[in-house]
Design a protein that fits this description.
Layout (H helix, E strand, L loop, with lengths): L7 E8 L8 E8 L4 E5 L6 H8 L7 E6 L2 E2 L9 H4 L2 E4 L3 H4 L6 H12 L5 H11 L16 H13 L5 E5 L7 H18 L2 E6 L2 H7 L2 E4 L11
Helix pairs in contact: 4-5, 4-6, 5-6
């Protein structure tokens, strides 16, 4: 029986913004099907940009992205729906990632509505609110009416609502206290155990990534990506 294709494979990625020098230079990484990979590096090294490339949210200058063995042919709104919906993303700053006009219910439901899959919407949103520890009483509040931790729970629920095969957590817990961090990591682990999804966890906390992931890779500024000790 052949080995399944990697959940994610990045090859020779160089990426940056506008006409500035690239912040990511010739980086390659591979996340096997069902694997949890921790991408470890200091703030400002470019790992968040690489995460956005992996999620098809930022077009690289050079290099290729493969999801489940299929090459990405577009980024952002030009990415094929089948590839966009394979990836769920949770960012570090929940208030920058959430539309302040939406209730938490609508925030979580947003990807379902975008894909036209509204049949199971009420049950799916309620189940994820429960799984992430939000509770139904918070679902009709807006972002300014909840804490950072509560809003990040909603953002995680939104990332899981389409049942992605790959979850990317970009410094997901950096702004949270220890108890909320533990709760959200447990939600991710429960989801992966139930679905077999792969994980790319981006961060600078070696101890957390070591506990959370199957293996770590360093992301230094000026040399190739190498396994962490």
């Amino acid at each position: 029986m052949s080995e399944p294709a990697p959940a994610l494979e990045l090859t020779g990625i160089t990426a940056g913004y506008e006409r500035r020098p690239p912040v990511v230079r010739d980086i390659s990484l591979r996340v096997a099907a069902g694997e949890a990979l921790g991408l470890l590096g200091p703030s400002g090294c470019g790992k968040s940009t690489l995460a956005r490339v992996a999620a098809l949210l930022h077009r690289p200058r050079t290099g290729t992205v493969h999801l489940a063995g299929r090459r990405a042919t577009g980024f952002r709104h030009r990415a094929p729906r089948a590839q966009r919906t394979r990836v769920g993303v949770v960012f570090q700053q929940p208030r920058q990632a959430a539309d302040p006009r939406l209730t938490l219910h609508d925030l979580i439901a947003e990807p379902l509505r975008a894909t036209g899959d509204t049949t199971a919407l009420p049950a799916r949103v309620a189940a994820l609110a429960d799984a992430t520890g939000l509770g139904t009483e918070l679902l009709y509040r807006r972002p300014h009416q909840v804490s950072d931790g509560q809003l990040q729970r909603a953002c995680l629920a939104r990332a899981l609502v389409l049942r992605p095969a790959l979850l990317i957590c970009d410094e997901m817990t950096a702004m949270l206290d220890a108890s909320t961090t533990a709760a959200l990591v447990a939600v991710v682990e429960d989801y992966r155990r139930d679905t077999g999804a792969a994980l790319l966890a981006v961060g600078h906390d070696r101890a957390l990534l070591h506990r959370w992931c199957d293996r770590l890779q360093e992301f230094p500024r000026e040399r190739p990506l190498t396994p962490a000790p």
